[in-house]
Write a structure and sequence with these properties.
With about 325 residues, the protein is of the alpha+beta class. It has helices spanning about 5-10, 20-30, 85-90, 110-120, 120-145, 150-155, 160-170, 175-195, 215-280, 285-315, and strands at about 30-35, 40, 50-55, 60-65, 70-75, 80, 95-100, 105-110.
Length: about 325
């Protein structure tokens, strides 16, 4: 391994504390992988078989949301590592990785990574810190995207006629419209009552009391025209309520999935820390072991309860 390659590998925060001999040993376990611009490094739900470190170029980590839109979680520069989550917990990839420009990666297989972490606890702790930071970043992104405004989504789904119906029904249902109708009724009927019953005023009754034929005709026409608009408004309100319910359900599902993922990674991190402490011959009290066991049982109980509810909701 030449000096430049050793310096480049030492610049990676994960390997910054390694001695030159350790860097040489680590480099001998790695394989360089070249990916063309736009090339796929791995896809979501694939088995996690290796950790990757960006040697040159740039890598985009992304997922698809519920609306099939691409969501970029991060863009990784040289020196950054990724793919460690699936390697640590033995699960599948939780996101997609794509090269942005011609990219060269260091690839470290899972068994080699595990041996390296057990031999270098400082690097393991650095990886755990990076994993926690990425979980917080992902949780924040999902929370911001999950909290979509039902009013905005409903507004975008309305046609021009729907918007007109909403505007009219909004005004019909206002106190101002009631005052207009009340003032019109009192003025119309009051004038015609006075004109019919008080001849001394010499007013001309255009809608004689007590029949009020013109008033009844106009008011009936108004009612006939407004009734369909009111029905349209009620249907639109029902659609709005359905949109809010669907968004609430979607947000709850995403939150439950994130809780499960976070708890599982915390459990895995706890086990990894205990392995490191045993490897370093650190003394672990019986009380600490009991607390760790209790934490694992609690985590499993919570995750099984959440996944059970999600399964029932899905069926």
């Amino acid at each position: 391994m030449n000096t430049n390659e050793r310096s480049a590998l030492a610049s990676v925060p994960l390997f910054a504390a390694l001695a030159p001999d350790d860097l040489d040993a680590l480099a001998s376990r790695m394989v360089d992988v070249r990916v063309a611009d736009g090339g796929t490094i791995f896809l979501e739900r694939e088995p996690g078989l290796a950790l990757y470190i960006v040697k040159s170029g740039k890598v985009r980590i992304w997922v698809q949301d519920a609306d099939a839109n691409d969501v970029t979680l991060s863009e990784l520069e040289p020196g950054a590592f990724f793919g460690e989550m699936a390697v640590l917990d033995g699960g599948k990839r939780s996101a997609n990785a794509t090269a942005m420009g011609d990219t060269t990666l260091h690839c470290l297989e899972s068994d080699q990574l595990e041996a390296f972490l057990l031999a270098h606890p400082g690097a393991a702790l650095q990886m755990i810190r990076s994993l926690g930071a990425r979980l917080r970043q992902t949780n924040t992104l999902i929370t911001e995207r999950g909290a979509r405004n039902a009013n905005v989504i409903h507004e975008r789904s309305l046609s021009r006629l729907d918007r007109l119906a909403v505007a009219i029904t909004d005004r019909i249902g206002s106190f101002g419209f009631f005052l207009i109708i009340a003032a019109w009724t009192l003025s119309w009927t009051g004038y015609n009552i006075l004109a019919s019953l008080v001849p001394a005023l010499h007013w001309v009754s255009f809608d004689p009391f007590p029949a009020f034929v013109a008033y009844l005709l106009i008011s009936n026409v108004i009612q006939i025209l407004l009734m369909p608009l009111i029905m349209v408004g009620q249907n639109l309100q029902s659609r709005h309520a359905e949109t809010r319910a669907e968004l609430d359900f979607d947000i709850n599902q995403k939150a439950e999935k994130e809780v499960v993922a976070t708890l599982r990674h915390l459990e895995r991190n706890t086990e990894l820390l205990l392995q490191l402490m045993h490897h370093l011959d650190c003394r672990v009290s019986d009380e600490d072991l009991r607390n760790a066991a209790h934490q694992r049982e609690l985590t499993r109980a919570i995750t099984s309860g959440v996944t059970g509810r999600s399964g029932n909701a899905g069926t």
